Amino acid sequence: MTIFDYIEQHSSPESDVLKQITRSTHLEVINPRMLSGHVQGRLLSMFSQMIRPQRILELGTFTGYSALCLAEGLTENGKLITIEHNDEMESAIRRNLALSPLGDKIELVIGDAKEELKRLGERREAFDLVFIDADKKEYCDYLDLVLPLMRSGGWILADNTLWDGHIIDSAYDKDKQTVALREFNDKVAQDSRLEKVILPLRDGLTIIHIP
Fold first, then answer.
1. Which value, to the nearest 10 degrees, does the dihedral of the CA atoms of residues 207, 175, 33, 14 take?
2. Are the CB atoms for 41 and 7 separated by under 8 Å?
3. What is the spatial distance between Cα 170 and Cα 168, in angstroms, rounded to a whole number?
4. Which residues is 129 bridged to in the sheet?
5. What would the mean pLDDT of 190-207 be, rounded to a whole number?
6. How many Å apart are CA 128 and CA 151, to the nearest integer?
7. Is the pLDDT assigned to residue 34 strictly greater than 90?
8. Element (H, E) at 11
9. Are 76 and 105 in contact (CB under 8 A)?
10. How many other C-beta atoms are found inside a 10 Å radius of the C-beta of residue 11?
């Protein structure tokens, strides 16, 4: 047994719907490791339930697992907008979201995250919680576009910010994704407006609070 197995066994279980999405993702999708998974999913759900957001924005839907976890904390009339760039994933995402009543609270947008963020800004959309889990090379740009959309007291979660340990490994100094994530981490750390902490969960999860 690994320490992660132990953590998983002593955390709240996945719902049957989430188990089904996990199974279908591993059977049907290349690189299923991109799925948030059991423990991170429970953390996303718990975090959302603690702050009870009215509006959630997710960048990077994959197969819809994390969106459903985040939606567990939405207020009664709350809404989650999730943006996925890969249009080949659309049918699988819609199928998975339809498995849960929470799917009715989720709006799927297929498109480029930066372009969609600009449109949200033009519409003066505002969010209580944002989950960033899309193209790692664009994280700095995402942050710049997301911050104006945040309500005072809002929260941003950024996934993969330790990047399997590559973030401190000089062997990856020329890897574009690693370099971009280092720049993102430095950008967040140096911004005095933000409260922040990195959790060493799976691939690293950064929690950012906008006071």
1. 0
2. no
3. 6
4. 56, 155
5. 96
6. 6
7. no
8. none
9. no
10. 14
For the segment 53-65, what is each residue's pLDDT rounded down to a tens digit?
999 999 999 999 9
Regarding beta strands 150-159 and 205-209, do their DSSP bridges make them parallel or antiparallel, or are they unpaired?
antiparallel
Tell me the β-bridge partners of 209.
155, 195
Edge-first strand listing for the sheet containing 106-110: 106-110, 79-84, 55-59, 127-132, 150-159, 205-209, 195-199
What whole-number distance in Å separates Cα of residue 195 and Cα of residue 209? 5
- What integer is the mean pLDDT of 10-19? 96
Q: How does DSSP assign 76-141, residue by residue?
A: TT-EEEEEES-GGGHHHHHHHHTTSGGGGGEEEEES-HHHHHHHHHHTT--EEEEEE-S-GGGHHH
User: Left (φ > 0), alpha (ψ -120 to 50) or beta: where does 19 sit?
Assistant: alpha
Fill in the DSSP letter of residue 15. P
Residue type, 66: S
How far is it, in rounded angstroms, from Cα 173 to Cα 166? 9
Given a contact cutoff of 8 angstroms between Cβ atoms, the answer to whether 21 and 65 are in contact is yes
Q: Are 128 and 54 in contact (CB under 8 A)?
A: yes
DSSP secondary structure, 151-188, as one string: EEEEEEEEE-SSGGGGGG-GGGTT-HHHHHHHHHHHHH
Residue 117 neighbours by CB under 8 Å, 6+ apart: 59, 83, 142, 145, 146, 149
Coil, helix or strand at residue 191: coil
